[in-house]
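R.M. (postdoc): so does anyone remember the format we settled on? I'll just put the structure tokens first.
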């Protein structure tokens, strides 16, 4: 599976969008977009990428949550590419609701759907076991100090993610994390547990 980090529109507040393709653009690979962002800015770049002969550039759109900076343009991209939209909760353009533990084909690999509330009640992350990578959306994995307030759901999310083999994280806004991922998550969990849990 190839992961292409798409460019963001610098004039709008938006998330990072990721296009997932098969390594060789195989006919059975499922061209997948994670978080289409605020506007249709990424469409021009997608249209310049070779995504396979006789294939739609985007066949499915996966939402990490329904906040506008991640999901606002889902319906726009759905109309352009005929893609199916998957989200944890109903929203504009959403065709199918995700379930915890569900497995989806993406590119030429598979993603496990993990319900990871904390940032929002509908937050999900997508985990590729074979490549040990995680698309984390806005699930915060790096908290350097204790203090503040966190929900019990968020603690359980961190416990769950700390148990996975993750070597690479593609977050919703920051640069990818490709070193010491487990120790970062464990340290975050410790800092959160030393804070107020509500």
């Amino acid at each position: 599976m190839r992961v292409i980090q798409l460019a963001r529109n610098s004039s709008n507040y938006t998330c990072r969008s990721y296009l997932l393709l098969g390594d060789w653009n195989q006919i059975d690979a499922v061209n997948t977009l994670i978080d289409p962002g605020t506007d249709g800015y990424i469409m021009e770049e997608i249209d310049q990428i070779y995504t396979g002969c006789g294939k739609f550039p985007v066949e499915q759109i996966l939402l990490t949550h329904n906040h506008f900076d991640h999901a606002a343009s889902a319906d726009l991209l759905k109309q352009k590419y005929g893609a199916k939209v998957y989200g944890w909760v109903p929203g504009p353009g959403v065709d199918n609701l995700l379930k915890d533990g569900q497995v989806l084909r993406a590119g030429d690999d598979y993603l496990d759907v993990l319900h990871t509330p904390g940032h929002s009640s509908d937050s999900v992350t997508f985990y590729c076991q074979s490549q040990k990578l995680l698309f984390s959306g806005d699930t915060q994995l790096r908290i350097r100090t204790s203090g503040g307030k966190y929900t019990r759901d968020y603690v359980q999310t961190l416990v769950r993610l700390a148990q996975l083999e993750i070597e690479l994280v593609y977050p919703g806004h920051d640069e990818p994390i490709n070193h010491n991922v487990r120790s970062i998550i464990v340290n975050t969990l410790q800092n959160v547990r030393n804070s107020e849990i509500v």
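R.M.: ...and that's the designed sequence above, right after the tokens. Also worth knowing: The chain has five helices and 13 strands. Helices lie at 42-48, 68-71, 74-81, 152-162, 181-193.
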